[in-house]
Amino acid sequence: MLAAFKYVLIPFIALFFIACANIFNTFGIKDRIDPSLPTIAQLRILPDVSEVAFEWDLPSDVRMINGYVIFRENAKGEFKKVAIVKNPFATHYYDKHLTPQTRYVYAISTIGRDGSISPRSTPVATTTSFIDPVTLFYASKEYARTIKLIWSPSANPSVTGYIIEREALKDNKHVFIKIGTTKDRFLSEYFDRNLADGTTYKYRIISQSFAKSLSLPSNVIEGRTRFLPDPIVNITATTDRPKQIYIEWDKSKDRDVVSYNVYYSSTLEGAYSLLANVKGNSYLDNLQSDGTTRFYKVSAVDIYKLESKLSVGAAKGRSLPKPTTPTIVTKSFANNIASFSWSKPSEARIKSYIVYRKAGFFKDPDKFEIDGNSFSDKEMKPGIKYTYSVSSVDDNGLVSLPSAPLTFEINNTNSNLELTPVPINPSIEPSHKVEHKHHPKNTTHKKQKSQKK
Q: Are 6 and 123 found together in one domain?
């Protein structure tokens, strides 16, 4: 019985593979042609940008067929299957993902119920179309670090957006790269940001359809970012102001410049730090120190917040230094009166002098402002050490460093006179500024009110 079943099963398997071979053979290269099958008299074609639509009439007897095979000619002139329509009543199909502006040739056959195919229809040639490039393309030339792109919307209703491309250098070749997209046919504006100052860029626009078909590129146009303001010139800085430096420069000729940044450094080649932003073309640097040197550079800032490069070179300024310290040249002691004089510095700005008189070690020094260059102390007491020094005062109220200290001491039996060297940190310091001047009638001491440091 098993042997009988074997003889029945073998023919069945053979028939099964033959049937399958006929079905699967429709996907192969060599098809069995059945001239008795109905053929398609005419294949009508409607091309688009990247798709081709087909239409045909039903054959005379659809009972003999299971569907249709669509062929497309390749570059070698061979017809290859591109689609199988498994419905004998179908009369439409489309081929997609094609290349725009390309010639294609198609034909169609019917598929018999046994998997054979009819002779192909008469080949029909067609050429895919294209989406017209956008027109009226404009690129701005006045925005800061940004270029605005505007173009006329595509007239093709299948367009769903645009691809924006900018020229770039890649592998030593100028190529266009995608930098952005828009998502609607009527959204025909794009801003390219974070660009270099005063630089020209080239752009083109490509339309894209809902089927991802691309238009021809637009004309290439140039856009440019705004130039930086011109550097500031003719910067000057004063050297004769007490505790201040006045900086001035030529006003920018750029009408869009609205302010200036002032930078300073303690050295010519050092790092410059922002000091101030001002509207006018000058600045007063209040240092509150004497003889301080600074170097200055200035930049212009426009309404777009673009800042020019720093000025070439720097202006050197200095606050007025302290006047020259007097030098004590004579000293004497007689009849319990200490007297000394000093040389007058040659600076014309020195108008008076301050004599510092310190009695003992703990009391604050007395200060005497005089116009002459000598001093006598008639109020000395025995057993007390007196220390004197002198500072110059200029017409701005600046006080020099004190001279080398001079000491006197009256003993009960005799007197000592000593001139000591200048210490590293003198115990007698000048006041910052003498507000109320006292003019003695002679060179004997006229005491001012003591001040604490």
A: yes
